[in-house]
Specification:
This protein is an alpha/beta fold and 312 residues long. 43% of the residues lie in helices and 18% in strands. The relative contact order is 0.13. The N and C termini lie far apart (45 Å). Helix 9 packs parallel to helix 11. Strands 1, 2, 3, 4, 5, 6, 7, 8 and 9 form a nine-stranded mixed sheet that branches.
Length: 312
């Protein structure tokens, strides 16, 4: 089986739209399956889609999205895993576009397509087309976002890194991308795959804790072996070389503020190694801009620019 779509749900009315968007995909029935993980703690309202032979419904007891997703992944039969929230939906031809990408990309750990961002009323906002490929570890560590809804994740790699981390809700997708990017390759297509809602209305994400949890997750990854080498392998211009020491220096500041002096000193030393291995890139203006400024997603910047051009 090519892929398994997993939808964790708390029983919102938008679930039916999400389910039907998967069932309408232009792939043979045997190529994909749909697993709905009911995490609401109560039965789902009856619906005719529940009788589809492609759908399995399982239940978790209000354990939050990461646990629900991991539970669905544990019974999935697809080579790739696709995670779709119950208030988002696949666009026509989305899975077919990812299947075509897989046929070209071969053994990629993470396949992704374009994403149509919409507001909570479904009105289109901007499109995201991340320009990353292959080893893009430093891009993920900097803060580039690959929406789960528009992605397929190799199931073997997913379980090899431990799946979603339940203790960092709200940032678990970013953390997963970073852990997979540490060892695996990524490949993308311009084709739009999914529509993803933005905004706090009806959202179950606590954005207030995202920054703190994100830094904690980054700290765990920075302490792993091979991180600097992987970052260097993913840097292809002065800007990305500049992001490497910044990752370590900001970590050093965070660790000093939490009185983890030994770890902070270690991060400073690794940051200086980033300078040494930066070579000629250290003399570029892009290097120093990357070192001095917070990251602004290139995919978001491009999306806003294209939207403004379209309005004009």
């Amino acid at each position: 089986m090519f892929c398994s779509t997993i939808i964790p749900t708390i029983g919102r009315p938008s679930l039916e739209r999400a389910v039907r968007s998967v069932l309408a995909q232009e792939l043979p029935d045997a190529a994909f399956e749909l697993i709905v993980v009911n995490d609401s703690g109560r039965p789902l309202p009856p619906a005719d889609w529940q009788r589809s032979p492609q759908i399995r419904i399982i239940h978790t007891a209000g354990r939050e999205r990461s646990v629900a997703r991991n539970t669905g992944a544990a019974i999935a039969r697809g080579r790739y895993l696709h995670f779709l929230d119950d208030d988002d939906w696949l666009l026509p031809g989305g899975l077919a576009a990812l299947q075509q990408l897989w046929q070209r990309a071969g053994d990629a750990a993470w396949l992704f397509g374009g994403t149509q961002l919409v507001d909570r009323q479904g009105k289109p906002l901007i499109q995201l087309h991340p320009a990353v490929a292959g080893n893009c570890f430093i891009q993920m560590m900097a803060g580039e976002w690959l929406p789960l809804q528009s992605s397929l994740i190799d199931s073997a790699r997913f379980f090899a890194v431990g799946g979603f981390a339940p203790l960092i809700p709200g940032i678990e997708d970013v953390d997963l991308a970073r852990r997979i990017a540490l060892a695996g390759e990524m490949a993308g297509t311009k084709a739009l795959v999914a529509a993803v809602g933005m905004g706090q209305e009806n959202s179950t994400t606590n954005s207030g804790s995202a920054r703190r949890l994100g830094q904690m997750a980054r700290e765990e990854i920075l302490g792993r072996p091979g991180v600097l080498a992987r970052m260097l392998g993913s840097a292809d211009d002065g800007y990305w070389y500049g992001r490497i020491p910044r990752a370590y220096f900001t970590s050093a500041v965070w660790n000093f503020s939490h009185r983890r002096v030994a770890t902070a000193v270690s991060r400073l030393m690794w940051g200086m190694m980033g300078f040494l291995f930066g070579g000629k890139a250290v003399f570029s203006g892009a290097f120093w801009r990357a070192l001095a400024r917070p990251y602004q997603s290139r995919a978001f910047s491009q999306g806003f620019s294209e939207a403004e051009t379209a309005v004009r």
